[in-house]
Design a protein that fits this description.
Layout (H helix, E strand, L loop, with lengths): L4 E4 L9 H6 L22 H8 L2 H12 L7 H9 L6 E7 L8 H21 L3 E7 L11 E5 L5 E5 L17 H14 L4 H15 L4 H12 L6 E3 L4 H6 L1 H9 L3 H15 L12 E7 L4 E7 L2 E4 L5 E3 H10 L4 E3 L4 H8 L2 E6 L1 H7 L3 H7 L5 E4 L2 E5 L1 H10 L10 H8 L3 H31 L4 H44 L13 H7 L4 H8 L7 E5 L3
Parallel strand pairs: 2-3, 2-12, 3-6, 12-13, 14-15
Antiparallel strand pairs: 1-15, 4-5, 7-8, 7-11, 8-9, 9-10
Length: 547
Amino acid sequence: MTSTVQSINFSDLGPTGKYWLGAFDPNSPIHRFLPLGPLDSISLSEERNQYWRDRTTDRKILVEGIGNSNLPLSSTQSAALERLNDPSSLCVVTGQQPGLAGGPLYTFNKILSAVVFAKRLESEWDRPVIPILWDGGEDHDYEEINHLDWLSFQGGPVRFEIDRTVEGDRPAYTLPFDSSQLDFLIEFIGSVHPPTDYRQSLEEFLQEIQGQSKTWTDFFDILWLKIFSNHPLLVFRPWEPFAREMAHPIFAEEINRPEAFHSEIAETTQELEALDFKPQIHKKEGLCSFFYWDGGERRSVVHEEGTFHIQGTDQKFKKPDLLDELKNNPTAFSPSAVLRPLVQDAILPVAASVLGPSEIAYHAQIGGMYERHRIPRPFILPRFSLSLVFPKQVAHLEELGLAWTDLSRDEADLMKGIVQSEFLEQGLRAIENAKSAHTDTLIKLTELASQQSKGLIDPLNKQFGKVEKTLSQVEDLLRRDEMKRQENLRQRIVGLKEAFLPEGDLQERVYGILPFMARYGQEWIDPLVETADQWDGKRHYVYRLGG
């Protein structure tokens, strides 16, 4: 196990599920529902190319709008923004909610995938292809994004959570991120990580980002832009006015036909269930595909008997009135998870979307919506599935004679195959032989004493009793030593399992990127991007940091 990267079949390690595994199986019926791109050879979609070929005005709006977001771009990223003006340019997009300090590692894996796939397609298609992170800051589920799980040196996750009250269902992009929150985070890092040079660099890095951030999403976006500063990554914020104006036709269609997406999804759901695929989307009748932001909360909208009801309020709109509201106040409308992909693919020149397992599942149900909106679908590319490990962990694994795939097994089962009890067995056998010889000797001496000197019998028994007690003490010593060795072994196995499969889940779904930056800085990221350019994406990858 000396290579920097190890490739493991998904059947042994990585995401599972019928949708995910079917994405890599060309014979799976899931390909009827999704334009899954073959990772080894992705042809340029002429439909997508034509969809954006003559939209020079929209390109100008995009470039100006992204530029006006005032996010700090590196020279490489600024050049990428200018390249979006090229009429032939396309992009590879991935999206994610703005989790605390970057969120779980699958966010990093998504961005890494977008960067690598964009680079490949640019080379293959001989045209600009830009990686873009779609900030899911419109989401209002604060409980999903307010915490960070840290990989402690003791092994296992330690959770940091920002304790604050968020009134109502406020979108994440409206939440301030102030210095006190960062102070608490840095204090936490100091409690779980020793004062190394890399930890100090990480703290300075976070303080620099906080100094440029006013909101939760600022911190999230700037963090990823800086981590990938040597790559042409851009961030798109769909809640900004220019983006809402561009999405106007999508929302107008959904207002004009509020029930259409229910029948479209229902039809696809039946087809998927007939093929033994479990549907991801379950929407109650009347619930619209968009939310309404009233300045206080992001609220669901229900359509009943020709009237749109803003949930949690007394507000009601007839169709013409809601269309007027869309025209006059477009920033009040935001898409649900069902509609978001259509908005993305309508207002960005998307060549391919990088998705995770659950996203692939719900994308399988929305093909009818694309047809109704007349939006050609871009290719769907499954993101890389990746675990990060340290040299010490690799060494422990080799010492124990285990593979990474073994760590999914029960620890007691693993120990049975690892514990080397030959020393104990030989020691116990030697003691047993000594006890047997001791007994034989005592019997022989007792017989002699009974014939010639009966007064020796009691002293002999007393002295031989001391020897027997000593042998029993030696036996106990050997057994305690074995128990200690087994406990050390158990702790090493548990430590590896908690680092690699914390709480039985994949590492990428629990830990964030900060623990790895605290140990190894950022120097490993660019080499990883270069290495990942050789991956086919069809397996789970284990990348060893530190050489």
